[in-house]
Amino acid sequence: MAGKKMVTISTMHSRYSDRSDFTSKGHIAKLALSLACVLIVLASVSLTFIGLVASREADRQASSNQQLLLDSALNYQFALMARDQLSLARWDTSVLKISQNFDRDFVIDEFMDSLWFDFGLDRSLLVGPDNKVLAESFEDDVRFNTRQLTSNDPLYQIVEQARATFFIHRITIPGGFGQQLISSVAPGTQAAQGFLLLDDQVVMVNAMAIVPDDGVYALAEGNPVVLVSAIHLGKDFLADLNDQLSFSDLTFIQLQSSSSDQPLHKIISPSGEVLGAISWHSAMPGQQIWRTVIPVIVVLATFLALVAIAIAWKIGQLTRSLATSEQHNFHLAMHDTLSGLANRLQFKRVLTTALKEDIPTTPFTLIQGDLDRFKKVNDTLGHAAGDTVIKTVAHRLTEAVGSAGLVSRVGGDEFVIFLPDCVERSRVKELADKIIAAISLPVETENGEFAEVGISLGIAFAPDNGSTSESIMAAADGALYMAKDLGRNRAIFADDVSAKYQ
């Protein structure tokens, strides 16, 4: 039964105390910290995403720029070949001794040797109007009438392009035809250029027509003799190429014999065939961006974490302080300042809550108490002694009732005891006698004197003596007044009052 009473009291308190609000405020700091953690994660993820996008874009832009640089370097090599060839191909003497009267000594000593020794062109050919190879050199080895070009020959297309270029820029001069001056047309426009696979080697090829320069000798109608020169894409060529680039590990890969998956710059023939690739090791700037971004992310996340912890700690302090203050204020609002007992407001809330229950299944007992001879204590010993008496009485009442009910001070020397789910007359009478005996003991005041008071009790049962707050309180008051009339320091049941007046 006592356990049931304790549960009932706790339940009633929870219905009006709002302590859940106090505890919920303790979660504000945790919520703030959780929100800050989410923001830190979002900021870190955002910075990581930005770093990823920036690094990829930087790598892409760097790769694109390197491709452009390589294209420019290759075009410059083609321009150098065209310039070197032009010094021999645009020459009246070449027209005389190659196109008109083929002179082998001239071809060897003045023409082919210059292309190899002076300009470093690995291979050169002179192709006649009928596609017969008049002369062919491999470095310093010169051979004549070596073969006939066919349409299947890799050189055939480049020779045809050189002839087409000649006819575009051909002009009429005394005695036949010539070509526009070099000052009016860029060197590259007078040559056919490209990459070819010759004898299982990938080469850079430049081809142009043999034409007069001063107009002393002229070309006849028909196809001109075409000079074709080639440079192997070997180490020497790559070293010269890299003088302009300063790339790391610049290498030519012939794709047919290489396992390289993604060459950086493909070498493609005029027919569209992939012949190989020029690759190099590139230190992409994206790695540098990551080396910059990651420390920034770490520093920023650490800073935000410290700030979040500091803010959460401060919020925690404020919320705990606020909760403590609210609990203190709530306690003051619900308790009597002098005695520490529940005050009139708390008692009314408990009583209202109890009356909202189904009274037949949740009966309770109400005891009204009023001190006897308390005015004499104030008058003879002073108000300080009276305060001591109130505190002592409150302590004795609390000890006597224990967990069985709620003790309230509702006036100067007026007390109310609420006993939930307790309507056994014998138990209530036993408790009332215990209370009267405890209160009747002398109370030592601060000045060493002893005050003697008693207590009169009026006892009412719900729902037998009332089912509303007004009726049950009136019943208890009536019993209390009878106790006073009968000599005080005693307990009277409301049932006894009703029986007396019947």
What this model shows, in words?
- By secondary structure, the chain is of the alpha+beta class.
- The chain has 3 domains: 17-89 and 283-322, no CATH class; 90-282, no CATH class; 344-500, Alpha-Beta Plaits, CATH 3.30.70.270.
- The protein is built from 13 helices and 18 strands.
- It has helices at residues 2-17, 19-89, 92-100, 104-118, 154-169, 235-242, 285-334, 344-356, 374-381, 383-401, 425-439, 469-485, 494-500; strands at residues 123-127, 133-138, 141-144, 170-173, 176-179, 192-198, 201-209, 226-232, 248-253, 265-268, 274-281, 364-372, 406-409, 414-420, 443-444, 450-451, 454-462, 491-493.
- The strands form 5 sheets. The chain has a 6-stranded antiparallel beta sheet with strand order 3-2-1-8-7-6, with helices on both faces.
- A hairpin with a 4-residue loop joins strand 13 (406-409) and strand 14 (414-420).
- The protein is rod-shaped and about 160 Å long.
Q: Unreliable stretches, pLDDT < 50, 5 or more residues?
A: 1-8, 14-20
Number of helices: 13
Describe the main β-sheet briefly.
Answer: 6 strands, antiparallel
Alpha-beta content class: alpha+beta
